[in-house]
Amino acid sequence: GENVEQHPSTLSVQEGDSAVIKCTYSDSASNYFPWYKQELGKRPQLIIDIRSNVGEKKDQRIAVTLNKTAKHFSLHITETQPEDSAVYFCAASINSRNQFYFGTGTSLTVIP
Amino acid sequence: KAGVTQTPRYLIKTRGQQVTLSCSPISGHRSVSWYQQTPGQGLQFLFEYFSETQRNKGNFPGRFSGRQFSNSRSEMNVSTLELGDSALYLCASRTGELGNEQFFGPGTRLTVL
Predict the structure, then answer these.
(1) Of A34, A73, B68, B74, which cross-links A49 as Cys (Cβ 3.0–4.6 Å)?
(2) Is the C-alpha dihedral spanning A112, B43, A96, B92 positive or negative?
(3) pLDDT for res A57
C-alpha cells in the first residue's frame, strides 16, 4: 500500500520567518494531497489541498507544491505567527481506493 | 450545517473490557472513516464505511470492528481491550465521492487501565 513519510517531526521558527514541511509518498497512483492542522486538544482541520494535475496552490500565507516525478509535496507557511503553532499532517489519497494515508505529523512552534 | 460529532468524548476502561464509540457524520455525508491517533504514530486508518458497507480496512486486528446504519451514523467496537489501545479515536465524514474533502470529529479519548 501507500507509505507517506513526513519531515521534520519538530520545527521551531521565529515569528515572521517561513516554515517548510516536506512529505514523500510511494504510490504513483496517489492523486489527492491534503494538509491538516491540529491544534492542541482539537480536531484536525483541512488547511489546503492539491490534486495531481496541479503543481502549486496558494492560499494567503500558505502554499503547497507537488512534484509528481519525485513523489514529494511540501507545505510552505510564510510570515509565520504564533497562532500557526500546531501539529501539521500531510496525507495522500488514491481516489480509486477512497483511503487516506497520513504522515506522522510535524509539531511547529512559532516563537514570538 | 452541524459538524461531525462523536460520543462519548472520554472513556476509561480496563483491560479485557469492550467499548463502543459512536460517530454522527455531517448531514448528507455517506462515508465515515475511523482513525486511531497516538503520539509518534500519527493517524492510523482503521476502516471506512459507505452506505452501510465496509469499503476499506486498515491493518488492525479483528478486535476492531465497525458498522454503519442507514442514517450514516457509524459505530466502532473494540473488544478485549489492551493497554496499547489507549488513543484518540477520530472519525471523519465526507460525501463519499472520489477525492472529496473529509471533515473530522472531535475524537473520543480512550484510556485503558
Answers:
(1) A34
(2) negative
(3) 94
Cα–Cα distance list, B71 to A12, A85, B103 (Å): 44, 37, 17
- Asked whether the beta carbons of residue B107 and residue A95 sit closer than 8 angstroms, the reply is no
Could you give the percent of chain B with pLDDT greater than 70?
96
Question: CA-based Rg of chain A, rounded to a whole angstrom?
Answer: 13
Q: Please tell me which of the candidates B42, B48, B101 has its beta carbon nearest to residue A99.
A: B48
Q: What are the grid coordinates assigned to A25, written together?
A: 509518498
Q: Which chain B residues have a beta carbon less than 8 Å from that of A49?
A: 101
pLDDT greater than 70 at residue B96: no
> Percent of chain A scored above 90 by pLDDT?
81
Conformation bin of residue A104: beta by default, left when phi > 0, alpha when psi is -120 to 50: alpha
The rounded distance, in Å, linking the Cα atoms of B67 and B47 is: 10
Q: Where are the beta strands (DSSP E) in B1-113?
A: 5-7, 10-13, 19-24, 31-38, 42-50, 53-57, 64-68, 74-78, 87-94, 103-104, 108-112
Q: Is the peptide bond before A8 cis (omega within 30 degrees of 0)?
A: yes
Cβ contact, residue pair A100, B33, below 8 Å: yes
Q: How close does chain A come to B90, measured CA to CA in Å?
A: 8
Q: Give A48-101 pLDDT, tens digit per residue.
A: 999 888 899 999 999 999 999 999 999 999 999 999 999 999 999 887 667 889
Residue B99's pLDDT is: 58
